[in-house]
Amino acid sequence: MFKINLLAGAIAVFMAVASMCTAKAEIVDGYAKISDDLTIHYQSTGSGPVAVIFVPGWTMTTKVFEHQMTHLEDSKAVRAVTYDPRAQGLSSLTIEGHYYAQHARDLNALMAKLKINKAVLVGWSAGGGDVLEYLRLFGSSKVAGLILLDTSPKSRTTDYTKDWAWFGTKDEGDQDGFLKTFSYDVMIDRQKLDREFAEWMLDDPSPANIRFVEDMSNHTPNSIAALLNTSYWFLDDAKTVKALDGNIPLLYFTRQEWNKLATQWAKKNTPHAEVISFGKHLSFWEHPEKFNAALDDFLRKVK
Fold first, then answer.
1. What is the pTM of this model?
2. What's residue 171's pLDDT?
3. Which domain holds residue 134?
């Protein structure tokens, strides 16, 4: 009887160890208290020495990077992290701090909380403001690579059809009315704006895909959405990006219509940077296999 019990115990221990070894790592949801008024919701997976931090854009959430987090799940090469900036997704709805220098300080604090000392920063859309302001304020000592994901080093130029930027200052200071659209109209008819914005983002503007975007965006109140866009208009981090050229790997991943302008800017200002373009603003979500392959290639260049 003793031998049988001993054998049974050994088998149980073996099965438990085997289960631990074969269990697939999860994408873990966590909350980091940054200050008395701010707790940041984040997701994390993988255990590599370098963190890849995906930063969502204007009013978006961690869900937008679901295919990248799944792709890097259980990675031994990198640790994948994404988070909801303040007043977005499941992070705190703060009264103050809705500008990109503060977003950068939030990112710095989150990296400290998560003990991240080496990171590849991936800023999508207005999330590029978060990562570029981080680099401006805190430098690149902890940054091993930078991906600008359908965003530009500066927010405005005279004519956005001739230079790589979001806003143009011709036509009485607001080319095509885009500043007004996202800073004023968003407070007047949010539902209409969210729908039109989603349609612009997508190759496939199906009702389900539009609803996916709307559900993320609606976490952020109208007035905060307006303030975030207005403060973004003032950013110009081109000098910061230029200073990185040749020091860390740079990738500008843009929608197809931005390819020519991004390539021209890169050739003139950051000749070591790579430019990849296809699809629309949400191409990394709609075409994850193609994007993730490019991401893997880029990460192999990170030292």
1. 0.91
2. 85
3. 29-299
CA-to-CA distance for 267 and 49, rounded, in angstroms? 31
* Contact between 149 and 65 (Cβ < 8 Å): no
The CB density around residue 90, as the number of other CB atoms within 10 Å, is: 15
| Residue 1 in domain | no
Q: Where are the beta strands (DSSP E) in 67-168?
A: 78-83, 119-124, 143-149, 156-157, 167-168
Distances (CA, A) of 7 to 2, 3, 15, 258: 9, 6, 12, 66
Q: What is the pLDDT of residue 25?
A: 62
Q: What is the CATH number of the domain that holds 237?
A: 3.40.50.1820
Q: Is 250 helix (H, G, I), strand (E, B) or coil?
A: strand
Q: Which residues pair with 53 in a beta bridge?
A: 81, 121
Q: Choose among 246, 255, 259, 254: nearest CA to 301.
A: 246
Coil, strand or helix at 87 = coil
Identify the residue whose tokens are 């990675």. Answer: 75
Q: Which of 3, 41, 25, 131 is nearest to 79 (CA)?
A: 25
Split the chain (303 residues) into runs of 10 and give each run's mean pLDDT.
45 43 73 98 97 99 99 97 99 98 99 98 99 99 99 96 95 89 95 96 98 97 98 97 98 98 98 98 98 98 94
pLDDT at 172: 83
Domain count, the chain: 1
Q: Write the single-letter amino acid at 145.
A: G
Give the residue carrying structure tokens 């130029």: 157
Amino acid at site 90: L
